[in-house]
Amino acid sequence: MNIARPLVSALILLASLASGGCASQPPLKTVDHLDLDRYLGRWYVIAHIPYWLEQGKVASYDSYARRPDGRLQNDFTFRRERLDAPEETWKGTARVVNTQSNAEWAVQFVWPFTASYLVIDLDPDYRWAVIGHPSRRLLWVLARERQLDEATYQAILRRAAAQGYQPDQVRKVPQPAD
């Protein structure tokens, strides 16, 4: 595999996100508290605001685990274009930036660049979560199961809109049926 293409792609993405959020909107509000032990594990990507690094990725999920050095392992697994394509994984790390809430992370897939990861909505039973970025150009709806019922999904989009997101930009990610 040629590492140069993903590296250049990640560098361009991170540079474009470094400009931060929109000055006309207040900062995103994260959840008050995230229990890291309950949050660890696998989260399926139900929907996102598409960007070029995730184009053509289907059946995608994130996995989070504690590392001995205190950071978190953050792996992104996906298939290209087809649900029956082989799985690929990008390995990353994350560190908690706000230790009072645990809801603000810095995620790194390519050193030395990091991206903000903000948990802005979370099911009380940790069945689904919504991840935002200060720029509001990125959003992910994650769930413990491959599918999320439509009423819950629509309620999530309404709350994201209240935080300044454009729901019409969010697209579902194809996942295999359970």
Automatic annotation (TrEMBL):
Name of the protein this chain belongs to: Outer membrane lipoprotein Blc
Domain Lipocalin/cytosolic fatty-acid binding: 34-175
One Gene Ontology molecular-function label: lipid binding
Known role: Involved in the storage or transport of lipids necessary for membrane maintenance under stressful conditions. Displays a binding preference for lysophospholipids.
Family: Belongs to the calycin superfamily. Lipocalin family.
GO biological process, one term: response to stress
GO cellular component assignments: cell outer membrane
Leader sequence residues: 1-23
Source domain of life: Bacteria
Keywords: Cell outer membrane, Lipid-binding, Lipoprotein, Membrane, Signal
Lineage, top ranks: Bacteria, Pseudomonadati, Pseudomonadota, Gammaproteobacteria, Nevskiales
Species the sequence originates in: Stagnimonas aquatica
Assembly and binders: Homodimer.
Main localization category: membrane
Annotated localization: Cell outer membrane
Xref: Pfam families: Lipocalin_2
CDD domains: lipocalin_Blc-like
